[in-house]
Amino acid sequence: MWIERLARDIGALGQAENTTLERALDQMSRAAALGVPGCSAALVVVWREVAGPDGSARHVVTDYGASHADLSEAFEYQYTSDQGPTVEAVREMRQVRVGDVLREHRWPGYTSMAVQCGDRSSVTQPSLIPGDEGDDDRVVTFGVHSGRADAFDEDVVVPLTALLAEHAAVALLSVGRQADVARETAHMRRAMSARTVIDQAKGIIMHARACDADAAFAALREVAQRNRMKVVDVARDLVRENTGSPARVRRPRPDSG
């Protein structure tokens, strides 16, 4: 059935290799705008719950994707004014439906902006993004919007939006995990690179001073502390100087003092 297919397509957008959060949200919003009956624009927002200055909890935007620029403008107004269906959906953690914004009295400050941006009717569904224990403070709101009043068949679109929000939440968990793996891999590569250059610099000092590895590292650390540098940066400069490559900034060599 096309509903399940659309939901699977939304969920699959978080599984692609090297997918970023921004790209996944943009693709989800475009897929919904094209696939949901009556929908002319879609908005997918990731929120994180934070503690306010008074200790109360509030939701802040991590990132969002909108299929159309006008909907982005309308959402940014919602966020800054704290009025509108999207902010109410995440604040109350329930589905928010709008048949016609011109008949609405919940957000008087939002009406003119919504009409100007072509946001007459909408269905917005929040869903918790699953996470590890202690890391379940993220929420996705999945909203389908139309420039026409009463554009959505509630029997179809209301449960469909809830289904899409659930699939989006699971997909965004995958995106987050991929980002964590990428960060960990990059950190490991940097660490390995730093260790290699430090070992090279220690070898240079050991040869010049006829000392052991511990004494060579102590010499590197001493120069780093004296010049308020990182040990790895001192090591890089020393390796450059001794391999004939010009260093960007000349630093005192560990064996010079």
Can you tell me about this structure?
The chain folds into two domains: 2-182, Beta-Lactamase; 185-256. Helix 1 (2-12) runs parallel beside helix 6, helix 2 packs antiparallel against helix 6 (154-209) and helix 6 packs across helix 7 (213-226). It has eight helices and five strands, in the order ααββααβαββααα. The protein is α+β, with helices and mostly antiparallel strands. The N and C termini lie far apart (77 Å). It is elongated, with a radius of gyration of 27 Å. The protein has a five-stranded antiparallel β-sheet with strand order 2-1-5-4-3. The relative contact order is 0.12.
Helix fraction bin: 40-55%
Q: What oligomeric state best describes the polypeptide chains here?
A: single chain
Under CATH at level 1, the class of the largest domain stands as: Alpha Beta
CATH superfamily of the largest domain: Transcription factor LuxR-like, autoinducer-binding domain
CATH architecture heading of the largest domain = 2-Layer Sandwich
Question: What is the N-to-C succession of helices and strands?
Answer: HHEEHHEHEEHHH
| Strand ordering within the main sheet | 2-1-5-4-3
Largest sheet: 5 strands, antiparallel
The radius of gyration computed from the alpha-carbon positions, rounded to a whole number of angstroms, is 27 Å
Overall structural class, as computed from helix and strand content, comes to alpha+beta
Per the principal axes of the C-alpha atoms, what is the gross shape?
elongated
Overall pLDDT? 81
Number of strand elements:
5
